[in-house]
Structures
1.
Amino acid sequence: MVIERNWDDAIHLKPKFFENFWVQRLKNKRDILVICGLGWDPRMTTLLSTLKNFGGFGLRDLHLVIYRPSPSFTSSHKKFIDKNFEELEKIVEKWMVKREIEIKTRKEDNRYGGDARISKFYTQYDISQYTDILVDISALPKSLYFPLLLVLVEKCKRIDRRINLYVIACQDVDIDSQITESIDDTRLLKGFEGKLRRVSRQKIPTIWSPILASNNSIALGKLFDYLHPKDIYPVLPFPSFNPRADDDLLIEYQSIFVDEWDLNPLNIIYAAEDDPLDIYRSLLTLYHQQMETLKPLGGISMVFSCLSSKISSIGAFMAAYEKKVAVAHPIGHHKLKVNKMDDYWSKSRRTRYKENLHSIWLTGEPYE
């Protein structure tokens, strides 16, 4: 079976290549837009402070996405959000033109609406003045950056294929393992409804592939009840920073896999933790295998759920975008489990963050 992949030759700049690439690229005039979120994550300003040190000339615009349920909402992590904001102000002063993009994530009836609102804003926003757009997802939730990337990829392809779009993520396994998320509701993200919103889908089997990290038992239960999948193909990290990560997850989710799902062990997929392109290729292989197998039944309705690191989620986005696969996501509030949150803003930690920046090139010059 020959599998065609639009991003088969996508450029993933891992940390050891990140600095050299951007230093060389910025020697020529580049008109840059950076889009990032205002949040408590200590990695929020890593890209901006790193990029500033690389120099260069041309437009330097920043969109700071401020997302909250309502204008009066006050986060329990306000101290760290303010800390990040103050740091950002110092970085961009006399360097970038900052614009604050307010995204109210809840509607009047308390249903989630952040994905629709960020989609609407960037659908209407003119990006033609930029040569390079960098979407920093370090402090953005998946429920916002999935629809944001969808709109930007579409616009770059339609308006000007020379616009270079990158998604940037700072990987820190320690922080990611400490983040937990409350589950307020579960839904399909804007632009990623796939076949699940069609009336005829009742006759098509739903195949679900959750990309997993730890601490997601509640989310898995709610997603399962929401989707009622015919079959499940979990994706576990291997190889990974922690050599036992996949074994630990098998132990953590054993009762769910065995007692609740009666999961066939052969359904488990393994993909590299720090390589979104491995996730991308693995999910596309699964998609084509299932389409081929279930073609006599009218095909499949496939769904991805990204309960993993942001690095992994980029690969899931790419596969979902390419095959118009649905993405079901639990919506909630993120928080760190640890008590000493200040440690994550230490000088040594910040240095480590700068050494772990990943850049995935989604549109532009390599694809003309």
Note: The chain has a mean pLDDT of 91.
2.
Amino acid sequence: MPSEKVYNWGIIGPGRIAHNFAEGLAVLPEAKLYAVASRSEQRARDFAEKYQVPFYYEGYDQILTNPDVDIIYVATPHTSHFADTIMCLEKGMPVLCEKPFTIHSNQLKKLVHTARSKKVFLMEAIWTRFLPTIEKVIEIRESGEFGKIKAVYADFGFYAPFDPESRLYNLDLGGGALLDIGIYPVFLSLLLLGKPVEIKAIADLSQTGSDESCSILCKYPVGQMANLACTLAADTPIEANIIFEKGRVKINRRWFMPSSLAITDSKDKTTELNFKYEGNGYHLEAREAMDCLSKNLTESRKLPLQFSLDLMELLDEIRNQCHIHYPGVDP
């Protein structure tokens, strides 16, 4: 259960995802959006005015010296996550960092080492992990009702017109489908099936060298398979299908966010399962972080740092097979 303490949140990087997170926090009585920092004073001020945030800062140093900030949500571009997160950790500040945690696993290993050595809370902000749909799928798997999982099919795609300067296509910003949206299908396969023994990945690269589309096949120790896809070239079903020995579960459209389930048993009878959501979904990852802080945990049991390390190593392997390279940040 959430602690009675009210946790003061700070946000570094008031971009689009930070607005979603701020709206999520608003439904949590145990959370207060207390401070925001941006490289632009105007953006920080505008964000603070919109969400009635008491403190706003130009630059990131001052937010870390505010004695009343309890935890920071890092919402800067992909390529800034490492520097911004390690800056917080070195000051002893707990961090919820937007996905992908870093650009490559070597960066993440340094973050994990810093967090563990300083005994500071750190978690990747994969909000999907805490959705009721995902919790229900895990419950079904653990119950054994439908037997073991045999296959996972998951996609995520939308149409994004080519713009070499946009964060989706600019390699200097970690652009490409894989790190921005492909991380979700890879996350789901890792969560449900663990680490694969074999990966085959191909990508169609844009003019900037970023991946516009990516297809991934994973094989697991006892014969399970995962078929995963992501693209910036078209709007796809954005569904996830989990095939069990004696049934199947479909997480309906836009499965990575608040959605519903279609559960089909061995007699081909389908039951729709809908969930009541009190917020936009981002509040669930914030609640998990605060629950960990209230229990003096430095890692989430539902989304531990080793899981994020495994996930980043899989993304590294996929990128290597697809010849996707980020200038100035790749090891």
Note: Residues 7-128 form a domain with the Rossmann fold fold (CATH 3.40.50.720).
3.
Amino acid sequence: MGTQGRIFSINISQAKGMAKSMARSGRLLEGLGLEGDAHAGPGIRQVSLLAIEQIEDFESRVKQAGCDLRPGSFGENITTEGLDLSRIRVGDRIRAGESAVLRVTQLGKTCHGGCSIRRVTGDCIMPQSGIFAVVEESGEIRVQEPLKVASQRKALWSWLKT
């Protein structure tokens, strides 16, 4: 896993507090988030990302709990594949698809008390592994399209060298 990956799934829900449904495509709207998603709106957590590798690892550890996990179960908007989310830092930018750009604003989150996954399994990965971002540039995204991290620090270093 590295700084490039792909969109494994796009997940949308029309109400907060419920698992998201998978979609083949979506539109990221500058300053708002994923069009049609209940969490879309101004703020620092417009879009959430979680790696399919982390979902699969978590599911293998809690299999005995009888929890059926899939992309969107943790409320993430974009399930990634092949992208090492542990290397991402606040301020990094992620190009999604051909034209959308996300800027990472938060790593992890406090798990709310009503988390159904935590109630069933005793644990949840979103607090440690979820990535949150704002949409800096709008664009269409589709399943299988590339995700590429462009570190803010690298961009600054390139600027200093010129």
Note: The chain has one domain: 4-161.
